[in-house]
């Protein structure tokens, strides 16, 4: 399943292109124009938009109220775990918006809010932890960057957990 998302995205792009549904391709300048855009950059831009649509947790519907709201200390983990297996069997990518929690079900979407600066991020639970007393969630470095906690390492947060969509 390592390349599943990439294959899905590429297939979707091919379908959209063949259907003529990709925005901007018709506006691609002719080669003699001074604009350096070409069909490949337009396809690349469209692919990014499609990828963001399907992979961004901000675009997921978190219907209803969270089933868990709590506060505590968050930390993050990165380099030493990069490429290793998470508790749910995925390969850890420190740049994705994921997190480890001791008991929340895998696939649960959690809105994490930094209590110091008000920044928030939505992460998906794919691992177990943290294993340090007093901490309630371990974030990937990607999520830590969104919250602005990379330099401090730990921060007081509010968690709002939503049931995974089926």
Key phrases:
alpha/beta, Barwin-like endoglucanases, about 25% helix, globular
Summarize the structure.
The chain has helices spanning 4-19, 39-55, 141-147, and strands spanning 68-77, 98-100, 109-114, 120-127, 135-140, 154-162. With 166 residues, the protein is of the alpha/beta class. Strands 1-5-2-4-3-6 form a six-stranded mixed beta barrel.
Structure report:
This protein folds into two domains: 52 residues, no CATH class; 95 residues, RlpA-like domain (Barwin-like endoglucanases, Beta Barrel). Helix content is 24%, strand content 25%. The chain is built from three helices and six strands, in the order ααβββββαβ. Strands 1-5-2-4-3-6 form a six-stranded mixed beta barrel. About 13% of the residues have low confidence.
Supply the helix-strand structural class: alpha/beta
Overall mean pLDDT score? 77
Rg measurement, Å: 19 Å
Q: Helix amount, in percent?
A: 10-25%
Low-pLDDT residue intervals, each spanning 5 or more residues: 21-31, 47-56
Question: Describe the biggest sheet?
Answer: 6 strands, mixed, barrel
CATH class of the largest domain: Mainly Beta
In total, the number of domains comes to 2
What does the overall shape look like?
globular
CATH architecture of the largest domain: Beta Barrel
Strand order of the largest sheet: 1-5-2-4-3-6
Number of strands: 6
Q: Distance between termini?
A: 19 Å
CATH topology of the largest domain: Barwin-like endoglucanases
């Amino acid at each position: 399943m390592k390349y599943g998302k990439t294959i899905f995205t590429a297939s979707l792009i091919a379908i959209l292109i063949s259907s003529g549904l990709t925005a901007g391709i018709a506006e691609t300048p002719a080669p003699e124009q001074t604009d350096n855009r070409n069909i490949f950059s337009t396809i690349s831009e469209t692919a990014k938009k499609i990828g963001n649509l399907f992979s961004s947790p901000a675009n997921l519907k978190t219907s209803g109220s969270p089933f868990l709201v709590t506060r505590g200390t968050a930390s993050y983990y990165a380099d030493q775990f990069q490429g290793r297996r998470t508790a749910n069997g995925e390969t850890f990518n420190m740049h994705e918006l994921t997190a480890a929690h001791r008991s929340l079900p895998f696939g649960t979407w959690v809105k994490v809010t930094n209590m110091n600066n008000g920044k928030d991020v939505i992460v998906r639970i794919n691992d177990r932890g943290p294993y340090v007393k007093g901490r309630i969630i371990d974030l990937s470095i990607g999520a830590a960057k969104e919250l602005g906690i990379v330099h401090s390492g730990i921060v007081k947060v509010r968690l709002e957990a939503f049931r995974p969509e089926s």
